[in-house]
Amino acid sequence: MRHYKKGRKLGTDASHTKAMKKNLAVALFTNDRIKTTVTRAKEVRGTIDRIITWAKKGDLHSRRLAIAALGDKELVREVFEKAEQGMWADRNGGYTRILKLGPRKGDNAPMAILELVEEAVVPKGKADGKPAKASKKSAAKKATKAEAKDDIEEFAEGEADRVDAVAETDVRDDAAEAEKAEDEDSVEEAVLEAQEAEVAKNEAENIEEIKEEIAEETKELIDDVNPVADDEAAFEETVEETEKHEAE
């Protein structure tokens, strides 16, 4: 049972979630804008609102609470000075704004920009007629939408530049790998050619040796046959001489 455990489940334990929320709050007060998931942005908004409320009070107890929440005295001093100068004096809440960016590549998590709202609140005021009131409200909405659109476009341009830089780096790496692979292929081809030349040389030497052996065997056979031929010729001469004497 999750008794006394309110809040969203972020896939972490209690200590990890507490540290993550503190880090997100510190990053937001330091940079005035951070990029995170929609769930984490919604979860950390309560912490940001409490710290700004303590800063608007400005007493010692509130300062100590803010230091305990952020863990950075210098950052707390800056936040309290902004509140003392009247940055959020005309606001009773809504100190942050969430601008959704769409799903993230990889895990398809919905991403968003969480930023501090620093512009002054447009007071409703007393107008003579409803049309004028409606026009002021519509003008404020248009201004807010235009600012949000500009922020999203600026962030999108930065992301596009970063993606282009990463793509250029990948192309360089691929070219280097391809050149390296070509060098390795050329080395392998040279080794294969050398091996083939060595095999051909060995085969030629073997053929020469076989030819020499055949020539020697042929010569030996001829030498063996010649004495027999000489004996036959001498025998024929003897027979002819014998026949000749008998005829006389």
Question: How many DSSP H or I helices?
Answer: 5
Question: Strand order of the main beta sheet, please?
Answer: 1-3-2
Listing every helix as H and every strand as E from the N terminus to the C terminus, the arrangement reads HEHHHEEH
Uncertain segments are none
β-strand amount: 5-15%
CATH superfamily of the domain at 7-121: Ribosomal protein L17
CATH class of the domain at 7-121: Alpha Beta
Using brief descriptors, characterize the structure shown.
mainly alpha, 50s Ribosomal Protein L17, Chain: A
Question: What topology does this entry show?
Answer:
Elements: H1 14-31, E1 33-37, H2 38-57, H3 60-70, H4 73-84, E2 96-103, E3 110-116, H5 130-247
Antiparallel strand pairs: 1-3, 2-3
Short description:
The protein has 248 residues and is mainly α.
Textual characterization of the structure:
The chain is mainly alpha-helical. It has a domain at 7-121: Alpha-Beta Complex (50s Ribosomal Protein L17, Chain: A), CATH 3.90.1030. Helix content is 72%, strand content 8%. It contains 5 helices and 3 strands. It has helices at 14-31, 38-57, 60-70, 73-84, 130-247, and strands spanning 33-37, 96-103, 110-116. The protein has a 3-stranded antiparallel β-sheet with strand order 1-3-2. The longest helix is centred in the last third of the chain and has 118 residues, at 130-247. The model has no long low-confidence stretch (mean pLDDT 80).
